[in-house]
Amino acid sequence: MASLSFSSSVSSSTPFLRPSAFLLKPRSISRVPLVRAKIREIFMPALSSTMTEGKIVSWIKSEGDVLSKGESVVVVESDKADMDVETFYDGILAAIVVNEGETAPVGSPIGLLAETEDEIAEAKAKAAAQSSSAAPTASAPKVEEPGPVTANVEAPAPAVAAAPATPGKVVATPYAKKLAKQHKVDINKLAGTGPFGRITSEDVEKAAGITPAPKANVVVPSAPATPAPSPPKAATSFPEIPGSKVVPFTTMQAAVSKNMLESLSVPTFRVGYPIATDALDALYEKVKPKGVTMTALLAKAAAMALVQHPVVNATCKDGKSFTYNSSVNIAVAVAINDGLITPVLQDADKVEIHELNIGSLSLSKKWKELVEKARAKQLQPQEYNSGTFTLSNLGMFGVDRFDAILPPGQGAIMAVGASKPSVIADKEGFFSVKNQMLVNVTADHRIIYGADLAAFLQTFSKIIENPESLTM
Amino acid sequence: MQASVSSLPTPHRPHSIIRSNSNPSFRSCGLRKEAFGFHSLSQFLNRESRWIRIFPTNPRSRRQFVFSASASASAADNGSQLPTSFDYDLVIIGAGVGGHGAALHAVEKGLKTAIVEGDVMGGTCVNRGCVPSKALLAVSGRMRELQNEHHLKALGLQVAAAGYDRQAVADHANNLASKIRGNLTNSLKALGVDILTGFGTIVGPQKVKYGKVGLSDNVITAKDIIIATGSVPFVPKGIEVDGKTVITSDHALKLEIVPDWIAIVGSGYIGLEFSDVYTALGSEVTFIEAMDQLMPGFDPEIGKLAQRVLINPRKIDYHTGVFATKITPAKDGKPVIIELIDAKTKESKDTLEVDAALIATGRAPFTKGLGLDNINVETQRGFVPVDERMRVIDADGNPVPHLYCIGDANGKLMLAHAASAQGISVVEQLTGKDNVLNHLSIPAACFTHPEISMVGLTEPQAREKAEKEGFEISIAKTSFKANTKALAENEGEGLAKLIYRPDNGEILGVHIFGMHAADLIHEASNAIALGTRVQDIKFAVHAHPTLSEVLDELYKSAKVNSDITKPVSEPVSV
Prior knowledge:
Chain B: Keywords: Disulfide bond, FAD, Flavoprotein, NAD, Oxidoreductase, Redox-active center. The complex is a heterodimer. Chain A is an alpha+beta fold.
């Protein structure tokens, strides 16, 4: 793959082939800018918005045929129609990677186009390498398996009805199978909750973590002579307010929306803690000239506390076990471009807060970089999705306390309020005015219990109140 | 109902490509005001007769015939001697759509006619076939529309969740059947056809016995006899039908249950239509098909498109190339169990567990007890052998005088309207006009949503014929996507396909998949029946905007090399 000058990453895999069918007007698919390619990959084109994979009906051209721009090369069957796919480039069809009758996911290479005869051998070698590695994925796209997906079987159903009549057989209804394929759920790992222990669409939906579609038919019982008017479906039709404007979600907003809905499946609870910040404020004033930000200080403090309380840094992936994360990666929520993103400070417990040694990358510097990248939409996935704990700070707006939603895949999130002068009574009953902030942690109660959070907050508050260790 | 003739192995289908009872629209129940001449294509090659329509020449009044003889006299001679005078000119055994069509035409031609029915008037089509199934499909079509939020939204409609009342749906189907049955019975009575109740048996040449079990038989004589006893659902051996969880179309049309999951054995017309009904009402469906492809009777291209629209996006999966060797109804706390074997290797393939199974493997002729052995006729797999004029052929290969067989019982083309057309063709012959029905001009339709219809040959059949007879064929296709009316309805999914001879413009076949395809096909079937060529019909005008313009486009896109083009008809001054 490396010697192919044509990028094979998914993002640039827009097919350079254009479908043209006798029925449908050809949909023009944007061309891929040429990168001095000598061997080009022919990709499985997306022939419809719902197409995820396509089947090669027939190759119109054979290996070795000279192709000229606009010629039909291959017939692809999508979920909607068979379409002739034509080439945008002149060249020689060097190798067919996906043969007739086989299926390939959209965007995956199905053939190789060489510019000159000299490259044919090279292309063939590529194709051989690809087909040996790509063949299994091409036929059965089991790219990722989102963890074990065994559905929770709650109350055991009556023994007679719970098992398929044929012992050991996995029985799934037609729609369940369709959904499983669509959502890449391994049906063999599901426990059926339907009649006779069969796997129903609801089981697959549960495993895939999607909200079940409302059942198509409300079967009105025949008993009442006049059919009761069907109740209006909630959520589908809100009253229209005149003059309102509908703005669709951006991709980022859609992702936020999806994550927020997913978070509803996790049982969370919250614990709050007041922390005196005079010492922290003093430290901040001291290190500010060195480019250290409050965010970096709080992230560092949280990371140090998490090292002592690994369970708060853990994740519950399957509802059955703890996943203890080996590194402490602090995600920090940032409002940006009408959206929300959480750049991650990786190994925040280990990276120093500011440069002790010339040339080493400090937490503060790292953070600055991440924010710049986020603004430019250049964050790489591991720079925003590898967090093990999230920090959200609304203190700068004067918010004194708030409550954060736990992002899926993490064990806890900390909401930090503003540091404000407060009247505090000490053990002896003397009043004093000290700066104090309220932090509120939301956690997954499947793995993190009240005492765990309390102990973690106690450690955290000690670090904040004696912040010297942060800069050491 | 007698036991079905069920010893046929599954892959052997009745020797017609169309095997269903449930497809045709029931046309004969309306009182026809005039008779149409059914002519073979060859007759139309004669230009002189080309545009002549046949109108009834006789008044509808019943003629008194000279031979209105007594029944007792003919009963006494025990069939050994040919009667010289008859009770009736024509006796039809079976009052289904075929018998009804024949009877109406016979009266029109002045024949004294009786019809013998041992079960209910109307036969399969009216009571257990096309008619009630259309009622269910009307419901499923509306349910589909109401559930298609995307579609409704595109039209700007908002509809709250659609629901249905199973019993009310079932009642609609039953009421429709009763109503059509009433219409059919009244139409016969009004025309003076004698309705004789009881099972009819042929006891000798031109002699029919009828009567109910336990009552004394009556014997009547007739100059000519038409057998029109129809068919019953075919159930392969190994399948135990209990009428509740393992059912045939007879039971399914009563819609006593809507199972969560139903297996449908056979993906022909009956199976497809029921899959449309069941999925619209919320069931999931598994097809079991012995052939390698679903919908084996259809033109492959149409079948493929239909599968994309009618099968793939719905809650349906399928097993092809397999036989259901054993189906056990649900009992003892177990579901319906279906054992599958590979159709070729006969090896055990899979076992399915479902809530119900519908057996839609075609239909078997209902010809037992007809007394055919009394006149030296042997059925072939239950079917009554006939020649192209529907004359019954005896065991020695000779036509039996005065005996005809029409409809499903002869198996030529198992469609209600084909039976009726065959009956009319027979009556034409009886009244002195030779007539051979062109079966290639008989349309067929499957009332799924959207519908499928066809007439004439499929593309592979046409290619085979072209190769054998040494001519070229061409294909023209048009899409519903290009049709204004279809787009207005937001129903752009569809294809019309024309198979024709580019050398002379003969239409060999037309296949339509799309909205109202069943109604659209008749322009093509009429063209084939009348021998109209593509180069002629393309000048006919279609109203705009209509779905019929799909066919207009189709004809216009055909390229005929023939330089002899004629206008549709000579100008006629009126």
